[in-house]
Amino acid sequence: MEFAALIALTVLIGMLIILVAIAVGKQKGEISDQLEQKEEDSVAEESAVKASTAKKQKQQRPRKEKAQQQTFSHPLLASSLKSHSGNVTSLDFSSNGKYLATCADDRTVRIWSTKDFLDRDHKCLRANVELDHATLVRFSPDSKAFITWLANGDTIRIFKMTKKDDGSFTFKAAPEDFPQKHKTNVINIGIAETGKFIMSASTDTNILIWDLKGEVLASIITNQMTNSYAAISPCGRFVASCGFTPDVKVWEVCFGKGGEFKEVARAFDLKGHSAGVHSFAFSNDSRRMATVSKDGTWRLWDTDVEYKKQQDPYLLKSVPCQSSEGSRVALSPDARVVAISNSCSVAMYSTSTGQLEEEFHGVHSEEITDLRFDINSRYLVCSGDRAVRVFHNAPGYRAAIQDMQAMLKKAQNEGMKQRLKQQIQEAQSALDTVLTAPKD
Asked: Which chain positions lie within coiled-coil regions (predicted)?
């Protein structure tokens, strides 16, 4: 009996244990389900909050506004050319003085008539740059074509200009672009006035000399660590560059009597700055050069020297100025005026006295990209944002009048005196017109 009772008690205890285990397991399952449900609810709630927040942000996100066109006024501002829808990166005057070419990141090149600069409306002709955009533009010597540097293609593309009966032009790109040769960013291109070669220069101290068909004639290593600027002289004989080193190096591109390419020979250097040179410019006859440097000065040089006899250029003037990385210098074709860009502003100096003649502050909303005088020294033109600013060269008129007055005092021939008096009167009349012209 006792044994049977013990078995019964054991069975009873086992059943109780089993029931307790089942109860505990059930309770854990319910708790787990509740936790999972809470987690799911939490995730769903979090997702809903995120979705709601994103929706609100999307609804509240302001539309991206187009950049406002920079407004600028000055008594010497002749006009603002505003047809581009992108930032203007380069400009160039044709050799005949009739046209101004501008290019921008809106995939167009615009051709403007210089005779319309003083009109209220400024019409232009548009050349489309297919599948790319131009960062540089330069006219051919005969003003019947222009070359561009393609931003994405990293190469030169030539456009021919065909004049129509109504006086406008059609533009046609050459069948093939030049081959890709540069390994770093190209800072300038140009066509020699002689029509014998094309130049392209990159930041890695490399300058290439091309023929007009896209064959490389020569490669120049400038040894300036980096190139900041390079250009062909207006006479078409020289190529010059500047950069990290405190000098400007000038080479002569030599051709034979039959027009065949011979060599690139070192001509002369402009030495004297104490820091790297931002940029330089030639006068129209290539007998003068102007430089602007990181050392806070611009300099005027006499480059009409017998460099083949080891004669060095003469320093004519050294003048303190404000400059910055990317500053450009422009020298008027008659070498009477120097213009310096500093970020978004421009300063104009007399080359005879070194005096600051004019200052234009906040000309563009972005850094000035190009700065040039027209071939008649009447206008100074610069680019920076979507607009191109055209200024009257009042310092040039004043300098011309002063020069002619000095010549008049020395003149002994009566005919010469009369001509000088007439020219002084015409220049003074032109200056008065510029200074008293009504402004918009």
From this structure: 410-437
Give 210-232 pLDDT, tens digit per residue: 999 999 999 999 998 899 999 99
User: Residue 70: what pLDDT?
Assistant: 57
Q: How far is CA 93 from CA 19, 97, 212, 286, in A?
A: 101, 6, 20, 17
Cut 0.90: pTM above it: no
Half-sphere exposure of 224 (CA within 13 A, CB side): 31
Max CA separation in the chain (angstroms): 162
Cα 98 from Cα 113, distance rounded (Å) = 6
What CA–CA distance (Å, rounded) separates 153 from 173? 14
Question: CA separation (Å) from 228 to 242, 278, 286?
Answer: 6, 6, 20
What is residue 55's predicted lDDT score, i.e. its pLDDT?
A: 45
- Nearest CA among 153, 281, 133 for reference residue 214: 153
Give the phi and the psi of residue 138 in degrees, each rounded to 5. -145, 135
Contact between residue 103 and residue 113 where contact means Cβ atoms under 8 Å apart: no
The secondary structure of 208-264 as a DSSP string is EEE-TTS-EEEEEE--SSSEEEEEE-TTSSEEEEEESSSEEEEEEEEE-TTS-EEEE
- Give tens-digit pLDDT for 121-156: 888 999 999 999 999 999 999 999 999 999 999 999
In terms of DSSP bridges, do strands 145-150 and 155-163 run parallel, antiparallel, or are they unpaired? antiparallel
